[in-house]
Design goal:
The complex is a heterodimer. Chain A is built from 13 helices and 7 strands. By secondary structure, chain A is of the alpha+beta class. Chain A has 3 domains: 176 residues, no CATH class; 129 residues, no CATH class; 122 residues, no CATH class. Chain B is elongated and about 185 Å long. Chain B folds into 4 domains: 92 residues; 154 residues, no CATH class; 106 residues, no CATH class; 98 residues. Chain B is α+β, with helices and mostly antiparallel strands. Classes of the chains: A alpha+beta, B alpha+beta. At the A-B interface, helix 3, strand 2, helix 4, helix 5 and helix 6 of A face helix 2, helix 5, helix 6, helix 7 and helix 11 of B.
Chain lengths: 469, 515
């Protein structure tokens, strides 16, 4: 055998081994292959994202990408409703937060007392990922094309982004108040009370927003200005009209209003009586409580405290008593207000005390009832109604400005910059894919190694013969 | 050796003759020298063959550990860190719930981590997963491990205790024994590949890429279990259908409507402040706003209508209405009597209750002191009595109100129920239903939001199969090294043998020439 023959034999053997290794790799690869995947990343960078808090302060969880509603929306927008079901996609979709590689070690890490050099504790004690990887594995349709699979994932991400923008921001819809308001045949004072309560809610909302975003302004106006405008409306126009109506006993149907006040007063008086009795009972209970002190048992090596939770129980009883006293005070003041209104509306208003303070009547007095002053004329009703409508229009104008500010807040916090979805990457198992190359290399190397050993062994006698003799 | 024997006859020694004798030993094979230079020269001559042999031995030396690694490859284990994230109720104390800081369940009791491997959780985890090989719940359970994470303080205590044991510091060690060992609100869940009996050879293996999916699914299923078990997701009851069912008089209808709205208000007010402050993403309304709306509707709609009906007695059958109020009054009166008896009995118990007396004595002294401490049972008696008094207050309110309403209706004959009245009643019921629907939708949104459906967060499943080189570098190095050394040894021995044989040949030649 010549030198060339040796080389040829070795090369042929190695090539053969490589081919066999690649063949085995290909067989294993397609026999047990990973599904084709479309991958996209979504990153949240608005304030609070690192604490898993959406701009509206509520917790968010990108797992919602897999929710039935989101998948249904995605299928609808992609026009694939009949073709695939949300259940199919749910099983094929994974959403995982991207954590630091050493996260588990960090979780287990603690600051050793014996290590005086150690100054840093667990830096990831409250870590929440803000970058999430979304993978759509094709386990639902072997015939789907790469473009369609990528488009489907894009539709899922778009549907989630839209849903997130809708849920994670703030909104204001006053239709609820309008519907309640529209369906009632309210007297003026009730209409104003209605507007006042609505304003009360809106002021609170605007103040919350001002605290959350004090710097957001449109044309120089921020949420605090909105709150102020609401308060001004309530404190000026509404209060003025209210006082005019009440002091002058002006109502569409004074008798009905009077009936209602008496009805409410009746309830309040009953409540007051019962509440006072309850307070007395609580006082007796507190008086009977045996409040024992605390015993400390101290030795050289130990300190034991025996207190029997006595202070806590006593404090709770006192707390209940205070709450009850507050309730009585509240009910009493409400009853006084209603009594004042009844006096305003009834013919007995001349009997008021000169200082405006009214004594609460007995329940029997309320049951007898009183007669109201006469109602106002139609022209007066129309005039007052115009004033109420004007207040309502002003309120609507402020609400519109409030909505505009909320929209600006949402756009500032939730936009493609703060909720960034990356381009979809598609990866499918193929003979030119990196995963196959790796698998082929991994499988071929042992086969080739075997081939080399085989070559070396079969050529060994020849080599011996040639080079040793 | 140089022996001269010119003649073969007897040796004659002359007087002046000199004998010159040279002693020469015969050649000894043991005296043969090994010439190392010659050995290396020999090695050089067979270098080509032995380089070939070295390659062969090194290849075999590398192949054997590699083959053994593939045959006994350790199964992959993936791990995920789980962080509990919910509010914990503080038992009977009426304090606001606090964020969880240890392994306490939302109801204040210890959290049962074993539920993570319960059949219910694992069954839910596996349902819907399409795995390359099916695995049973039992096999999955046996491959899951849960590691609790001690708090930093506990870890440091452990450290100190260990050190003190080593230092034999018994006094400090005794003090430290009183410290409790606590865990943080985190734990690590690990899943090992290779499912089957521990001693079985026929284990099934999932693809490495499937392990994280299974682990994530198990943790998600455990989260769902926690939500199902602990989340207060009860929607308010809808009593308004009953009110409109018919056969109920106007006043009773309004009365029921008001009671239902009070119940709806109570449902909302029982929620924690953070729930009440949540603003709906659909309307911007909070539960606090909706509670205000309930009161507003009661004020502007139900009270307005009910007061009209009551004052003018606009009921179809006034006697039926009176009978209803009488019944309510009598029923509540009966309950008040019964409850008063309970309250009195409890008062007697409290009056006669003797709290625990603690007697303190000092060893070796006759000094003696005593004190009393409240028992838990004694404190509970008072809390129970507070509950009784609350119930009494409600019953007295119902009773007195029924009495007051009855007094209002006394002497009245009842007016005509006009269409206007009926329409107003329907409008009041409509408003109440509208608020109920809004509150239901609001709570439904909240219950489906991550704030309610996320009781725990978990990291990605960590764990990659170790790369072949990093797992086997040592064994490959040793295998290759041994192969190389063996081949080198053969090579050297071969060269040495050549040298020895050459020496032997020389010796044989010399021996032959000597003879």
């Amino acid at each position: 055998m010549t030198k060339h023959t040796y080389i040829r034999t070795v090369i042929i053997t190695l090539i053969l081994c490589g081919v066999i290794g690649t063949g085995i790799a290909a067989y294993l690869f397609f026999q047990n292959h990973e599904p084709a995947t479309a991958t996209a990343n979504i990153e949240f960078t608005f304030d609070g994202a690192s604490d898993s808090l959406a701009p509206n302060g509520m917790r968010f969880n990108p797992e919602e990408i897999r929710s039935e509603a989101n998948l249904q929306n995605a299928l609808a927008s992609a026009g694939l409703e009949g073709k695939y079901t949300p259940e199919q996609l749910y099983a094929s979709l994974t959403v995982s937060g991207v954590y630091p590689e050493d996260f588990l070690d960090q979780v287990k890490h603690f600051r050793s007392l014996l290590d005086f050099q150690s100054s840093s504790g667990n830096t990831l004690s409250n870590y929440h990922p803000s970058l999430f990887r979304v993978v759509l594995n094709n386990t639902f349709d072997p015939a789907i094309s790469s473009a369609s699979q990528s488009a489907l994932l894009e539709a899922i991400m778009t549907a989630y982004s839209a849903s997130f923008a809708g849920k994670a921001g703030f909104t204001l819809d006053t239709a609820f108040y309008d519907e309640l308001f529209a369906g009632t045949n309210l007297d003026f004072i009730q209409q104003l009370e209605f507007i006042d309560r609505e304003i009360e809610d809106l002021v609170l909302y605007a103040q919350e927003m001002a605290e959350l975003s004090p710097d957001l302004k449109i044309d120089g106006h921020g949420f605090d200005d909105i709150a102020l405008r609401f308060q001004n409306l309530s404190g000026s126009l509404v209060a003025q009209l209210k006082s005019n109506l009440q002091v002058n006993a002006l109502a569409k149907k004074p008798q009905r209003l009077l009936n209602q006040y008496e009805f409410t007063l009746q309830h309040l008086l009953v409540q007051l009586e019962v509440q006072k009795q309850h307070l007395e009972n609580l006082d007796k209970l507190i008086a009977s409580f045996e409040r024992n002190g605390t015993i400390y048992l101290t030795t050289d090596t130990s300190n034991t405290v025996l207190n029997g939770n006595s202070s806590y129980t006593y404090d709770m009883l006192v707390k209940f008593r205070n709450e009850q006293a507050e309730k009585i005070s509240d009910t009493s003041s409400q009853a006084a207000v209603y009594q004042k209104w009844i006096n305003d509306l009834s013919r007995n208003k001349q009997d008021e005390n000169s200082d405006g303070v009214t004594d609460l009547p007995s329940l029997d007095d309320v049951a007898e009832g009183t007669e109201a002053v006469e109602g106002i004329s139609d022209s007066q009703i129309a005039a007052f109604q115009l004033q109420v409508d004007a207040i309502h229009d002003t309120l609507n104008q402020i609400v519109a400005d409030f909505k505009a500010l909320l929209t600006a807040f949402n756009e500032q916090n939730i936009n493609p910059g703060t909720v960034a979805v990356s381009a979809v990457k598609y990866k499918a198992p193929s003979l030119v894919s990196a995963s196959f190359v790796m698998k082929a290399i991994k499988t071929s190397i042992p086969v080739c190694a075997l081939g080399i050993i085989f070559c070396l062994i079969i050529l060994l006698p020849k080599m011996k013969q040639r080079f040793l003799h | 050796m140089d022996n001269e024997h010119p003649n073969s006859g007897p040796l004659v020694i002359d007087r002046d003759a000199k004998i010159s004798l040279t002693v020469s030993n015969p050649p000894d094979p043991a005296d043969m020298e090994i010439d190392l230079f010659q050995v290396f020269a020999n090695m050089g001559k067979s270098a080509f063959f032995y380089l070939w042999l070295i390659i062969l031995f090194v290849a075999i030396g590398l192949f054997i550990p590699a083959a053994s690694y593939f045959m006994t490859k350790p199964p992959l284990t993936v791990s995920s860190a789980v962080t509990l994230n919910y509010m914990v109720q503080d038992g009977r104390n009426q304090e606001q719930p606090k964020p969880v800081t240890d392994l306490t369940a939302p109801d204040g009791k210890p959290l049962d981590l074993n539920q993570l491997t319960s059949s219910y959780v694992l069954q839910n985890a596996l349902s819907g997963l399409e795995l390359s090989v099916p695995i049973s719940i039992e096999n999955l359970r046996s491959n899951i491990t849960i590691d609790r994470i001690p708090t930093e303080r506990s870890n440091q205590q452990m450290e100190l205790v260990s050190k003190m044991i080593a230092d034999k510091n018994s006094e400090l060690y005794q003090q430290l024994q009183t410290f409790s060992f606590t865990y943080s609100n985190r734990f690590i869940v690990s899943l090992r590949n290779g499912f089957g009996q521990a001693d079985s050879n026929s284990k099934v293996y999932l693809k490495d890429s499937e392990l994280p999916i299974v682990l994530n699914s198990v943790i998600s299923a455990y989260n769902s279990y926690l939500v199902k078990t602990y989340a207060d997701v009860k929607l308010p009851d809808n009593p308004f259908e009953l009110i409109t069912a018919g056969g109920i008089d106007n006043l009773q209808q309004m009365n029921m409507l008001n009671t239902s709205l009070d119940q709806l208000y109570a449902y909302c007010s029982e929620k924690p402040e953070e729930v009440r402050a949540y603003r709906s993403f659909r309307t911007g309304l909070s539960l606090n706003d909706l509670m205000n709306a309930i009161r507003l509707v009661q004020y502007s709609s139900t009270d307005y209508t009910e007061s009209m009906i009551q004052s003018e007695a606009l009921v179809e059958n006034i006697e039926d209405t009176k009978a209803y109020y009488r019944f309510t009054q009598q029923d509540s009166q009966q309950k008040i009597i019964s409850l008063n008896e309970t309250i009195q009995a409890l008062n007697d118990t409290i009056a006669n209750y003797r709290n625990e007396e603690v007697i303190l004595t000092v060893q070796g002294s006759e000094a003696r002191n005593s004190g009393r401490i409240n028992t838990a049972a004694y404190n509970d008696l008072f809390m129970d009595q507070v509950d009784n008094l609350d119930t009494l207050e409600n019953l007295q309110y119902t009773n007195s109100l029924a009495q007051a309403k009855l007094a209002t209706l006394e002497g009245k004959k009842g007016g005509a129920v006009t269409e206007e009245v009926t329409a107003e009643i329907q409008s009041a019921i409509g408003h109440a239903q509208q608020i109920y629907s809004e509150i239901s939708a609001h709570m439904q949104d909240l219950f489906e939001s991550p704030s309610f459906t996320t009781f725990l967060e978990h990291s990605d499943a960590f764990g990659k199969p170790q790369s072949f080189l990093s797992a086997n570098s040592k064994r490959l190095l040793i295998g290759g090294g041994v192969g190389f050394a063996l081949a080198l040894m053969f090579w050297f021995i071969h060269a040495l043998r050549q040298d020895i044989e050459a020496n032997k040949r020389k010796f044989a030649e010399r021996e032959a020439s000597r003879r």
